[in-house]
Amino acid sequence: MNVIARPDPSPLVTFRLVWRTGAAQDPPGQGGAAWMTAMMLASGGSRGLSYKQILDLFFPMGVSVACQTDKEMIAFSAEVHRDHFLRFYDVFRGMLLDPGWREDDFERLIDDAVNFLEVGLRGQNDEELAKEVLYQEIFSGHPYQRHSAGSVESLRGLRVEDLRRFYFDQFTGENLTIGLAGGFPPGFDELLRSDFALLPSRNPPSQPSPAVRNLDENELILVEKPARGVAISLGFPIGVRRGHPDFPALLLAASALGQHRMSSGRLFTRMRQLRGLNYGDYAYVEYFPGGMFTLEPGQNLVRENEIFQLWIRPVERQQAHFALRLALHELENLVCGGLTPEEFDRTRSFLSKYVNLLLKTKVDELGYAIDSAYYGIPSYPEYVRVGMSALTLESVNAAIRRHLRSDRLAIVMVGREMAELRDAILTDAVSPMTYNSPKPDEILEEDKLVERRRIPLRAERAKVLPVDEVFAREA
Amino acid sequence: MAAVERDVFAYSYDQHDFDNGLRLITVPTAYPQVVSLYIVVQAGSRNEVEEGRTGFAHFFEHMMFRGTPEFPPERYEAVLQETGASSNAYTDDDRTVYHTTLTKEDFERVLAMEADRFRNLDYPLEAFRTEALAVLGEYNKDSAEPVNKLMEVLRDTAFDRHTYKHTTMGFLRDIELMPRMYDYSRTFFDRFYRPEYTTLVVVGDVDAGQVRAQVERHWGEWRRGAYTCNVPAEPPQTGPRQAHIPWQTHTLPYLMVAHRSTAYSDGAADCAVLDLISFLGFSENSPLYERLVIEEQTVDLLWASNADHVDPYLFTVLARVKEDADVPAVQQAILETLEGFTRQPVEADRLEDVKSHLRYRFALGLNHSEAIASTLAHYVSLRRTPETVNRLYRLYEKMTPEDVLRVAGTYFTESGRTVVTLAGASK
User: Fold this and answer.
1) Could you give the residue range(s) of every CATH 3.30.830.10 domain in chain B?
2) Does domain B9-219 have CATH number 3.40.50.720?
């Protein structure tokens, strides 16, 4: 067990407890076991208190317990005013150490998880759907293939007993990190340590983790559903993550190509700002879920294997083929031409300073500290600043050539009339672009190249999937 | 109770009015190195009073990123990048807010650049037309979410004359015509992007006196305007209304039950009481939540909101129901809950729990400079001073079960009700 304690004079006390286990450890046929176990702890009752009683106790404190299940980590966090600190901790401890495992909580939370997949992802968030299908495709045959919430079929097959078993096996003292910050009393971190020493002191069993498959040619997944626009995500696995010598260089390259939700990147400038194709276009070197809801990256989303990814926000259906071609064109320009000296300087300056804004709250600070320990790197701001200062334009462009590419991609598009789109892509049909205002010659010339850009693709690697089949069952 | 005596917004702040009508609110905090600048313009979709102009305030927010002679878009972006700033903007009914968070060494540079765009915005017709397409892209990305459609239909059904009839995004028919409205965009800028409509909120590792001098230096020359926006008053609703939305993909059915509400106030009781009722009746520890979500498990989402607005808006309850067949029973349960408040006083303990919840939730939310600035931006657009927060929370403290009974009886009437349902295709 690790304890990270950061006392300060704040009137608030912050908890972030993270178990180094997650959806990658779901037993065979039990997709969603980690997710559901965590939900039973955070949104079910403890043995001493029903869920309703917990809500009643927390309500006047203005407190809630947040829970996040990803492939490698499960995190519980909460912030409480010191006025209620001990009463809160008493309940919180019971939730994590002595769960209630009630059938009625289980039924409610299974419904929530199924509706999260069926109604939330499939029905109401085409952009996140495209991203999650992309991960599924890239990690085919690997435990990361499965959505962290499992599938509709696997969720419906789970029993409370499966979750108790997962909890017993995986929530041990050995793989727990307790993060604690703010105005807690002296010695409280030691009390926590002894309370959580009740957990078994052993390393949990581990599911096999095969190598990520090679993508040896382009693959296209088209998810058919009625929609106004077409959401696009594309990418490929990379062997680089925090701690790798080339990580700072790729972080800089992705930022220059498309810093998340900023209007500075090449993709944003050339697709949205100059052409009005959509609302925004971004690039990533790390898993980044929920990008439509947040401006900053989350924490405790660490991965053994990462992917490089472009997120093209919904484009008009008739411009989808062109938009895909333009995204690939920009990616190819980056891979072949690298960054300009000016882009390099600006982006390096950006990341060196921007990293100071990421650790806004104590919850964030603890999350980053836990992630840095996982990757074996110094504090994240320090890691990025030092990494940036060591880079040169040449070293970044060399790293781009080593790790990035504009072929052998997985491409996912979500929208309507997907069979027609598949045929258009397979036959290299011209996708002319028209505008509602005059454009500079440079753009019009580039469009002539882009509208005929070939996307090498074999018919057997292009499939149209009805939306109802996504997350229906485990592969 | 000591907590009751404390102001919920306990930070010292400097509030200063410049000669041109611009107001500056500076809140120095102990969070090191970082400064948040929130520029609050008291104009939003409420100010879209002309026919066919719905969604324009939001569209205009996009145009504010299209440059000035001194800072064309690429130069503006380059400065933000060099300074490592996190920058964005949003528009809603009563406000447009431009916000930047950055390290303090670059604050004045960005403050000066922001002053330039509020005074000297200038964009070509081509950029205007291209940006109109990005707005359509934004509508498209939001269109898969049923709650957006529910809000659109609810407002259109519940209001006849007031501009709250449309959402901030606007009607699709108007969005599609935006590329033709270049001249109107210049009028919009001339009307609302003026110091008397604008408040700067600066929160972080700063000295208030220094910020005042910096703002004077860069924003002092900005000239006051002369436009007053006459938003049509909404006539009283005289009977219940309803609408239904067929949804083309699979979803769980949604139900919205709304009643005409009142304007934001930090002095009159009604608005504060309706806020309290939204928690008494529908929060996670309410009896209705316990029954529908935890015990019967017929509903998976339940919330209510009496969202703060400059003019009278709506008290809205939303439920997502697991089975179509249960929608009428859930509607009945929501109506009975609301009617319950009109018939008998709530338990005093429950009322105190809600007050405590609001007070602590507010305190827990102010945990970094940007959160403080963002919270203040909301209130400043309503009353132009952080003091309104303390007045509102003192008002909450004073409210009694009898106040709840009186206010519920005033607003939860059948004649002020609008119900909107949405149901999807089956799987």
Assistant:
1) 9-219, 241-425
2) no
Cβ within 8 Å, pair A59-B284: yes
In sequence order, the β-bridge partners of residue B314 are B260
Of B130, B146, B358, nearest to A276 by CB-CB distance is: B130
Our CA-based measurement puts residue B220 at a distance from the nearest CA of chain A, in whole angstroms, of: 29
Give me the total of CB pairs closer than 8 Å, taking one residue from chain A and one from chain B: 203
Sign, Cα dihedral of A382, A383, A386, A391: negative
C-alpha A306: how far from chain center: 10
- In this structure, the number of other CB atoms found within 10 A of the CB of residue A93 comes to 16
Residue B146, both tokens = 């049923």
CA atoms within 13 A on the CB side of A449: 12
Cβ of B424 within 8 Å of Cβ of A122? The answer is: no
Query: Tell me, what's the pLDDT at A121?
Result: 96
Break chain A into its structural domains and give their ranges. 2-196, 219-469
The SS3 of residue A415 is strand
Separation of alpha carbons B197 and B209, rounded Å: 23
Residues 6+ apart with CB under 8 A from B380: B25, B40, B199, B201, B386
Name the amino acid, one letter, at A430. Answer: V
| DSSP code of residue A27 | P
Residue A316 sits at the chain B interface (C-beta within 8 Å): yes
Mean pLDDT rounded to a whole number for chain B: 96
> What letters, b where the CB count within 10 A reaches 16 and e where it falls short, cover A331-367?
beebbeebbeeebbebbbbbbbbbbbbbbbbbbbbbb
User: Are residues B131 and A276, on separate chains, in Cβ contact within 8 Å?
Assistant: yes
What tokens were used for A100? 């209630």
- What one-letter code names the amino acid at A215? L
Q: Which of B141, B145, B352 sits opposite A279 (nearest CB)?
A: B141
Q: What is the pLDDT of residue A349?
A: 97
Any idea what the Cα angle at residue A234 is, between residues A230 and A238, rounded to 5°?
Answer: 165
What token pair was written down for A296? 């900053």
B179 has a chain A CB within 8 A of its CB: yes
- Scan for tokens 């052998």, then name that residue: A408
C-alpha span between B234 and B263 (Å, rounded): 12
Give the separation between CA A181 and CA A451, rounded to whole angstroms.
54
With beta carbons less than 8 A apart as the criterion, state whether B55 and B63 touch.
no
Closest by CA position to B136, among listed A451, A262, A313: A313
**Residue B68 pLDDT level (bands cut at 50, 70, 90):** very high
HEC sequence for B375-414: HHHHHHHHHCCCHHHHHHHHHHHHCCHHHHHHHHHHHCCH
pLDDT at A475: 77
Superfamily of domain A2-196: Metalloenzyme, LuxS/M16 peptidase-like (3.30.830.10)
Q: Across-strand partners of B243? A: B420
Distance from CA of A327 to the nearest CA of B (A): 16
Instruction: Give every residue of chain A whose pLDDT is below 50, as ranges.
Output: none
Task: Note whether A2-196 and A219-469 share their fold.
Answer: yes
Asked whether this complex has an ipTM greater than 0.90, the answer is yes
> How far is Cα B154 from Cα B152, in angstroms, rounded to an integer?
6
Model confidence over B363-372: pLDDT tens digits? 999 999 999 9
Q: Kindly state the tokens that stand for B221.
A: 């020359």
Cβ-nearest to A226 among B138, B248, B352: B248
Mutation site, B133, B295, B361, interface A, largest A CB count within 10 A: B133
The model carries a pTM of 0.96
What dotted CATH number matches B241-425? 3.30.830.10
Residue that has been written with the tokens 């076991």 in this structure: A33
Is CATH 3.30.830.10 correct for A219-469?
A: yes
- Model pLDDT, residue B5: 60
Q: Which of residues 5-34 of B touch A (CB under 8 A)?
A: 33-34
